[in-house]
Each structure stands twice: as C-alpha cells, then as structure tokens.
Design a protein that fits this description.
Order of helices and strands: HEEHHEEEH
Distance between the termini: 57 Å
Number of helices: 4
Structural class: alpha+beta
Shape: elongated
Number of strands: 5
Helix content: 25-40%
Oligomer: single chain
Length: about 140
C-alpha cells in the first residue's frame, strides 16, 4: 500500500486576506512603485479578491499611426481612450501572511497567470518583491 505524503505547494491554499491589512498592502505597493518606477506608468491598480491580490498597471499609450486607426476603425481619441483604460496585468499574489505571499506572473503568451519564483529563488516573498519582478512589463 502506497503511503500518502504531504507536499508543500505555494500555488495552492492560502488564506483570505484580512480587510484590516488591505489598505496597508495597497499603500506599500503604491509607495514602492512610485519610488522605483515613477514615470513608467500612469497609475497602479491593486485589487483584492479572497486570498488573491491582483496588481495591474495603466500606461500612457504611444500615438497611433494612421494605418492602425484604419484597422481598428477608431478615431485617434477613441483609440487613446481605449488604450488608457486597458490594464497591463502584472501579477497575482496569494496570501499566506503579511510578508509571505506566493506569486503568479501574468503571461501574455498564454493569457493566464503562471506560477513563478521570486528573484531570491524562493517561492515566497513580499508584495514589493512581486511588483519588482513583474514590473518587467513597465520597462522601456
């Protein structure tokens, strides 16, 4: 008879994020983004749902070329408005404790969140470390 073994999986489980820490986590992420990535985004959106924290960035779009406007069938203003309101998904965090989160990086090639490790080589880290890892989408 095979024995069952317990395996730690940082991409499952987690705990519901307490309402009491949500404002503090949001502010920590906003402060980190402003300090290290100012000018690379128009705004950062931090959303909480159950055990997850989602981080999205909104950027100022480049001026569209006329050929692109013909393809989309939009005016310049319509295009810019749509692009300004389209988020760049950065990452999804799973809550275990205030400074213990696992991260899933949003991959545009698969259009879903994929588990990833932090630069330290650990499966767990802080919200600031997660932002820094996923901010690759904000680089010029």
């Amino acid at each position: 008879m095979a024995r069952r073994t317990w395996v730690y999986d940082p991409q499952s489980g987690g705990r519901k994020i307490p309402d009491s820490i949500k404002p503090r986590i949001n502010q920590r992420i906003q402060d980190y983004a402003e300090k290290h990535y100012a000018g690379k985004y128009a705004r950062i959106d931090v959303r909480f749902h159950g055990k997850f924290c989602y981080i999205d960035a909104y950027t100022e779009p480049e001026e569209p070329e006329e050929s692109l406007l013909k393809i989309t069938g939009e005016t310049r203003e319509e295009f810019l408005k749509r692009m300004r309101n389209s988020p760049t998904h950065l990452c999804r965090l799973r809550y275990f404790a205030e400074d213990r989160w696992s991260m899933a990086f949003y991959t545009y090639s698969h259009e879903k969140y994929e588990p990833c490790i932090f630069p330290s080589g650990s499966w767990e880290g802080t919200p600031e470390e997660a932002f820094a890892t996923s901010a690759v989408y904000l680089h010029d």
